Amino acid sequence: MGNDVKMGSLASSFIFAIPALPNKGDQMWFFTDEERELKEVCHSFAQNELAPSAAEHDENESFNLDAFKKMGELGLLGITADPEYGGSGLGACASTIVMEEFGAACASSTLSYLAHTILTVNNINNNASPEQKERFLPKLISGEWIGCMGMSEPEHGSDALGIETKAVKQGDYYLINGTKMWITNAEYSDIAYIYARTGEKKKDISTFIVEKGCEGFSTAGPIHKLGMRASPTGELIFDNAKIPVSNIVGNPGDSTYHMLKNLEMERITISGISLGIANACVDQSLRYANERKQFGRPIGDFQMIQRMIAEMVTERDMMKHFLYSVTKEYDQGKKGPTVAAEIKLALPKMATKIALDTIQLMGGYGYSREFPAERYLRDSKLNEIGAGTNEIMVLIIAKNMLKKYQNQ
Ligand SMILES: Cc1cc2nc3c(=O)[nH]c(=O)nc-3n(C[C@H](O)[C@H](O)[C@H](O)COP(=O)(O)OP(=O)(O)OC[C@H]3O[C@@H](n4cnc5c(N)ncnc54)[C@H](O)[C@@H]3O)c2cc1C
Q1: Which residue, judged by its Cα, is nearest atom 31 of ligand 1?
Q2: Which domains does the chain possess?
């Protein structure tokens, strides 16, 4: 074969040679001391609690419940929630730091973390009444309860405002009928934050907090997926589900703004997972290029491999600087939906390209399940679909920018 090392022994030597987690991503110069410390803490948590079992959970399509509970003990499950309910009161930048560090170790556990903290806890914190916050937030933040958010339906994904799940008021209850599809954490959730139609107009959308075990409510799943396999995905089924009036969030028909606003946070923070995946890919590629020899030299000596490395490092650095500088401005109220869509359009696509290049750089070993590169690719692809597809991001950016110039 002309190799310095036989293929089988090379593969097994790499299994031990590659550490469980890549070097932690750089701190940004503008991070606060608190954010720097958060990055360090999340890096070692990811190293110890997520990375070692990431491949196993992917293989078995199992949820890392232990790690989730420990995130609660560390105080990470209420990262954006108000301190009076047990939260940390931090913003998009801090949340993205967690996503980056966790995402490099186990992207799918991170997706479940995102569904809990950003889609459920953040939504309740921003939109629910003080009484509802008191009832739901402390248990969600401690990790005693798991949450999910139900917006998508079998017939309405990109067209989120077209949802058909209906809620009709009957005395002290709303009767809800319909199905929510693709719901991260569905089967594990103690509560679901869901949207349902309460009127005839397109914008007559209301929010309800649905508690596990309530009459007429059930879940189905798991849905088997290409990637993000350690993140359980399922359905929420409402068959004359009886939801107390006290569980409606805000005024009936007032939820469209809240829904769209939280999607901005979701799009920014899910892109942090893409950055984490890119970090893991770059790390894997650099190690491999130095260690793997062909024609008597490390493959990193070959200029075509160097080109791949140079491009992926440059793209990863662009992702990082774009994501964090905009996220900081978002926290300061200077940026909104257009830039959240830009981030979401750019980063997941770049991460998928970097993951593909990582596989190419590693040849057959990259394509094999002995190395994590193929998992990075499978996980990365989801971020081009969930939280709004690439195509929907294009529509948002183009529409908003064209409108801006029409008014000038
Ligand atoms: C693993 C996973 C986890 C998820 N978690 C959640 C969750 O926790 N909660 C939740 O509510 N949802 C969740 N989703 C749903 C996700 O948000 C939707 O899958 C996504 O919005 C796309 O909807 P869809 O799958 O119905 O695709 P569709 O909307 O049917 O789109 C199909 C294709 O048509 C394109 N398309 C659609 N409309 C247009 C248009 N106007 N112009 C051009 N192209 C268009 C799309 O870009 C796509 O390529 C999850 C999905 C997955 C796969």
Answers
A1: 158
A2: 9-147 (1.10.540.10), 148-256 (2.40.110.10), 259-406 (1.20.140.10)
